[in-house]
Specification:
InterPro entries: ACCD_DCysDesulf, TrpB-like_PALP_sf. By secondary structure, the chain is an alpha/beta fold. It contains ten helices and six strands.
Length: 256
């Protein structure tokens, strides 16, 4: 998956749709074709056999924010709701950090379709609540349009938005910024629990889960933080904040 990575300046990334389209055209060349993720299902049913051998370049939106990505998260909900894991009867409040919001929306869809007593709380990191609600509405609409033939539960047909509870980060900031003390907080969490979190994404969910648990000690709902990854970002942080990571390296045994 990471065999061919192209790094781009922030000025390019600010216009990511055009950037992806241009790069996809370069990869496709004159003989290939470009397909967006949300077109894959339609392509599967409409493509002619004679065209199947042609090279296809698939554009995946930022955060995989397409309806097809909901299927993977839907399967995660099915897996977690098994009796030997979380089960289908426990009242849970899932806390997840939200870049594009795709994971949170997928969790909400899965819980709704399976009739689970789960609430999804998403910590907004990259935009305001109106943008996240618009994203929620778009993904739900696209999901219903593309996969309606798999849905025998009428509940989803009655929903357009409102399956996710969007909240601000405990310490708001411009996306990508790291506040003083947050790298040390990540290091402390790792030392105490063995769980790696990063200050850009997963620390936000960790802090919110901790806050909600302390505020709602008498609440019936168990708070569950879903770790979304972000660990690769630690390599970039190690370059930006070298002094913090040098201190950590100095404390490790020589054999490590």
């Amino acid at each position: 998956m990471y065999g061919n990575v192209t790094y781009v300046p922030r000025s390019f990334y600010a216009h990511r749709k055009g950037m992806l389209q241009s790069h996809a055209s370069l990869v496709a060349g004159h003989t290939g074709s470009i397909v967006h993720c949300n077109e894959i299902i339609e392509e599967c049913f409409s493509i002619r056999t004679s065209e199947r051998h042609l090279k296809k370049v698939i554009i995946v939106n930022e955060g995989a924010s397409d309806a097809i990505a909901m299927l993977g998260i839907f399967r995660l909900v099915q897996y977690l709701s098994q009796d030997h894991l979380l089960g289908r009867k426990r009242t849970l409040n899932f806390i997840v950090d939200a870049g594009t919001g795709t994971t949170a929306i997928g969790l909400g869809l899965g819980a709704l379709c399976l009739g689970l007593p789960w609430k999804v709380t998403a910590v907004m990191l990259a935009d305001k609540i109106d943008a996240y609600r618009e994203q929620e509405s778009r993904l739900i609409s696209d999901f219903k349009r593309q996969f309606h033939f798999t849905l025998d539960d009428h509940k989803l047909n009655e929903v357009d938005v409102g399956i996710v509870h969007w909240v601000d980060r405990c310490h708001e900031r411009k996306f990508g910024n790291v506040l003083q003390g947050e790298i040390e907080a990540c290091q402390q969490i790792a030392q105490q629990t063995g769980i790696l979190v990063d200050p850009v994404y997963t620390l936000a969910a960790w802090e919110m889960a901790t806050l909600l648990r302390s505020k709602n000690a008498e609440d019936d709902a168990d708070v569950v933080m879903l770790h979304t990854g972000g660990t690769l970002g630690l390599f970039g942080l190690a370059q930006r904040y070298k002094s913090y990571f040098h201190k950590l390296k100095d404390r490790l045994p020589a054999s490590e």
